[in-house]
Amino acid sequence: RTRRRRLWGVHTVCPCAGCRAMAYRVFEFMQKENSLIMVLALVVLCGYALCKTVRLKAHAVEGGSTKTAKMQLASPAFNEGGFIPQKFTCDGEDLSPPLLISNVPAKAKELVLILDDPDAPNGNWNHWLFWGINPSTSRIKENEAPKEAIFGNNDFKRQKYGGPCPPSGTHRYFFKLYALDSKLSLPEGSSRDTLLSAIKGHIIEETSLMGKYKKKQ
Questions:
Q1: Helix/strand/coil for 132
Q2: What does 99-125 look like in DSSP terms, one character per residue?
Q3: Does residue 86 sit in helix, strand or coil?
Q4: pTM above 0.85?
Q5: Which of 9, 21, 98, 148 is the most buried (most CB within 10 A)?
Q6: Contact 142, 98 (CB under 8 A)
Q7: C-alpha angle with apex 36: 31 to 21, nearest 5 degrees?
Q8: Distance of alpha carbon 196 from its chain centroid, rounded?
């Protein structure tokens, strides 16, 4: 009985099932042997080795499960680096293209979307900006925006989408998506610069989709 109490004190240092099972097996062995010190040493060493192995495996599994894919933005209308169809430009119906969002960080509180043309003659030209997007949003339909979205003023001085309309040559158009760690409190009609200042320091992750367009002659 005394031996059992001592053994119990050793194997309960670690609560894992592996150590408890080993301790019970050793206890049965102790009924037949008198070398108590040797047995207790064996329990401590084997129990330590077993627990270390289990914890390393658990850490490896946990590390693998927390590794997540990066946030992505895509469109079924055009590929990354491809040409944007005419219907989404000033040469066509000037509709906003459909967008697909995936792998949004779990900690995101809000999404922000900005569409810029860095190749404009006078520097960057903003075509579209809105925020307040629910992080669970996975799709933005053609010519629509999430109902909760709040629009800012683009460089056309409009609170809506303005399609590609380069004066000459081929321009690149970047759809930029930002995942924020907090919700914005910007008023409707805020400018691009104001929006960028507000999200500074709150971006968890960002991604972009680039499409090209050359104006129809």
A1: strand
A2: EEEE---TT--EEEEEEEETTSTTS-E
A3: helix
A4: no
A5: 98
A6: yes
A7: 65
A8: 20
